[in-house]
Design a protein that fits this description.
Elements (H helix, E strand, L loop, with lengths): L6 E6 L5 H13 L4 E2 L11 H10 L1 E8 L1 H4 L2 H12 L3 E6 L7 H7 L5 E2 L6 H18 L13 E4 H8 L3 H15 L8 H9 L11 E6 L2 E11 L1 H8 L17 E12 L6 H20 L2 E10 L2 H9 L3 E5 L5 E6 H6 L1 H6 L14
Parallel strand pairs: 1-2, 1-3, 3-4, 4-5, 9-10
Antiparallel strand pairs: 6-7, 7-8, 8-9, 10-12, 11-12
Length: about 350
């Protein structure tokens, strides 16, 4: 797979630091480097969030203008999240004597900071340009790499790690990015809620068999999270009283009867198709069958839906809309026996009939 690099640096900054960002771009580009900076490089008529991700994807590194404003910006955190999920080099230029929050520190870790306060000097530009030249040298010539997984295909998290080389962290960072693209993307999330999302990524290791990853051309383009819940937590979710939290997931390894909750069935908005949603639904049914073999069964299944196309699929499979959650996601549910008796379901999953037979035994 050929990596296409159009820019040397993606500039991540708070709008309150725009004058400094534009000054840096001017000075860096006069030295011969290329920069992606919003809104200058956003193509007219294109979706803003997707253009930002494309800009990060096609840049060698991300130059973070760090200040109290950028530290508190949900949009800057989203950009750094995307950079980390793509293994991009991040150059943090601190333009204010301010310590990073736990969320920002989580991404940057023990990195080397360039301190540029009270002002940006030529020495800082020299250091930035030296890093750019080093990345250019390291990357040239760009070599074509063979694709490990052509896809589209859905794998369990562990399979994706083994077959593609993803890490737990990369998978979760990409899942967070997809959430931002799909869920109320124009609404700025509360900082407290955002920080919690970033700090909880390690929780996926405890439930790695509850997640499916949609892969195409070695890229994660979608995912599905499906969790067993007790009746109380499931009811709260279906009433829209709360969003799913890791501590709500039931202890299911010992078997038992649960309610199933699909916390997300996501496909990159630029790649949405019937085939890709059906692949995620196939994975969901396969997961139900495999869990049944371990004594884990469900009496009903609920789904969060953020795509009109997904809602149409759910309706055809007999799911009924019961409400809306705080992220404007439509909430659908069905009794499991009714789902497995649905005509379209039976037609598509005829080969699963014997595996699901116990659901029809009273």
């Amino acid at each position: 797979m050929l990596e296409v690099i159009e820019y040397d640096l993606f500039i991540s900054y708070s709008t309150q630091d725009r004058s400094i960002a534009e000054y840096l771009v001017d000075r860096i580009e006069k030295r011969g480097a290329t920069c992606f900076i919003a809104p200058r490089n956003i193509k007219v008529g294109k979706e803003y969030a997707s253009e930002i991700i494309c800009g990060i994807d096609s840049s060698r590194a991300v130059l973070l203008l760090f200040s109290s404003s950028s530290d508190g910006s949900a949009y800057v955190l989203r950009e750094i999240n995307s950079a980390v999920s793509r293994n991009k080099t991040i150059i943090p230029l601190r333009i204010e004597n301010f310590l990073p929050s736990s969320a920002m520190e989580f991404y940057l870790g023990p990195t080397h900071w360039l301190d540029a306060f009270p002002e940006v000097l030529d020495t800082h530009l020299d250091q930035i340009f030296a890093i750019v030249m080093g990345l250019r040298s390291y990357a040239a010539p760009v070599k074509s790499m063979s694709v490990k997984v052509e896809g589209p295909v859905v794998m369990d998290v562990q399979e994706a790690i083994h077959n593609v080389g993803f890490s737990y962290k990369q998978i979760t960072m990409r899942a967070i990015e997809l959430d931002f693209l799909i869920i109320s993307k124009e609404r700025k999330p509360e900082q407290e809620k955002l920080n919690k999302t970033y700090e909880e990524w390690r929780g996926i290791t405890d439930y790695s068999d509850a997640g499916g990853v949609l892969i195409e051309q070695d890229k994660m383009i979608g995912y599905c999270d499906f969790y067993p819940m007790d009746q109380n937590n499931y009811s709260r979710l279906m009433r829209g009283e709360t969003l799913v939290q890791l501590d709500m997931i039931e202890l299911y390894a010992l078997g038992g009867c649960f309610c199933g909750y699909v916390a997300m069935m996501a496909v990159d908005p630029t790649l949405v198709s019937q085939e890709r949603f059906l692949l995620l639904f196939d994975w969901l049914v396969s997961r139900v069958c495999r869990w049944k073999a371990k004594g884990i069964i469900f009496d009903r299944i609920g789904v969060e839906a953020y795509s009109p196309l997904l809602e149409r699929f759910l309706q055809r499979f007999g799911f009924v809309k019961v409400g809306v959650n705080s992220d404007d996601g439509s909430l659908y549910e069905t009794e499991t026996r009714a789902l497995f008796a649905n005509t379209l379901f039976c037609r598509r999953y005829a080969d699963k009939k014997d595996e699901l037979a116990d659901y029809f035994v009273s």
